[in-house]
Amino acid sequence: MKKAAKITGIGGYVPTRVIKNTDLEKMLDTTDEWIQQRTGIVERHWATDDQGTSDLAVEAAKIAIQNAKIDVKQIDLIVVATSSPDMDLPGCASFVQAKLGLPGVPYFDIRQACSGFIYGVSLANQYLSSGVYKCALVVGAEIQSKALDKTPNGKGTSIIFADGAGAVILQATDVKDETKDPHILTTKLHADGAGAAELCIQAPGCGLGAERITHEMIDAGKIYPQMNGRLVFTHAVTKMPEVLGEALTEAKLTLSEVDMHFFHQANVRINQKICEDMGIPLERAHTTIQKFGNTTAATIPLGMYDAYQAGKLKNGMTISMVAFGAGFTWASALVRY
Ligand code: UT7
Predict the structure, then answer these.
(1) Quick check: CB of 312 below 6 Å from ligand 1?
(2) Any idea which fold 183-336 has?
(3) Which residues are catalytic?
(4) Helical pair 268-278 and 32-39, crossing angle rounded to 10 deg
(5) Contact between 226 and 205 (Cβ < 8 Å)
(6) Is the CB of 237 under 6 A from ligand 1?
(7) Do 2-175 and 183-336 show the same overall fold?
(8) How far apart are CA 222 and CA 212, in angstroms?
(9) What is the tens place of the pLDDT at every residue in 61-74?
(10) Angle formed by the axes of helices 229-251 and 268-278, to 10°?
(11) Per-residue pLDDT tens digits for 103-144
(12) pTM recorded for the entire structure
């Protein structure tokens, strides 16, 4: 019998404020047609002024807790993946922990951008499989909208990034039959720091000079995401298939045995290219970019919650999670749900 972790609850949340492509047209000097053709995005959600990233995380977490039919007090580990925390210090998970009323429970903030949720699942899986903890909350949550350049200078990035949160409850389990019992089959994590400058937000930060933030940095737009979109695109379509392949090999599974894929949603053309190259039927890749945009670390759990709500994600299914993003980081997981 093998000790492992299984997903027992999924939750998701998006703010109620919907921003359509047409809302961005004037602001960014773009068009609905360009955004739809080049990214697949139709609309996305932006947080209201009074919402912080931890608020979104808590909404998603509460649904996941209810869905897992556990008492919140059973949670003994919290992992929050985000690139847009409430504050630089302390970590976002500290606010999530306090809002859930879990004093004493340890937490981690994960900073691996779009791959952050899979990194978080991998971390929690190690703790649960080794018996250190029994019940983990893993959240991906972002408020990107408050850090976007909402002028024509930002048209290359502000069209894709958006807000939302997704969460899972992972519980320790004894796996009797590895071919049937729900559990995390494997996770694969990679990174290449040489790509750091290709997708980054430089300020505030201690790598720029004498001060973390100056008026000059603000005026120069260093507080906004800088992205070499084409380069990130070409890396994503190479690294995502590679890391999915690695996970399949390790789990001794073939692609046809994976019922549903949860690919990071940065651009619908990235995922179409991956499906085409790998021979994955498009309907097996759950797509949410048209309505949620790119919610970075929240994308994969939010997508899972969307599929769960639609009745598409069912117990017993084998699913994949695959992401590529800033860092560069890329990662995959195979899960029997
Ligand atoms: O989640 C983190 C990982 N991120 C990603 O995976 C993002 C991957 N990259 C992408 O999805 C795409 O690169 C973008 C959607 C961000 C950009 O699309 P692109 O096809 O790579 O456009 P581009 O940046 O190469 O720009 C092509 C043209 C340029 O005009 P010229 O120089 O050819 O005249 C841009 O100025 O399109 C122009 N352009 C726009 N036009 C209207 C760029 N953004 C826009 C826009 N509206 N929003």
Answers:
(1) no
(2) Peroxisomal Thiolase; Chain A, domain 1 (3.40.47)
(3) 114, 264, 294
(4) 30
(5) no
(6) no
(7) yes
(8) 11
(9) 999 999 999 999 99
(10) 40
(11) 999 999 999 999 999 999 999 999 999 999 999 999 999 999
(12) 0.97
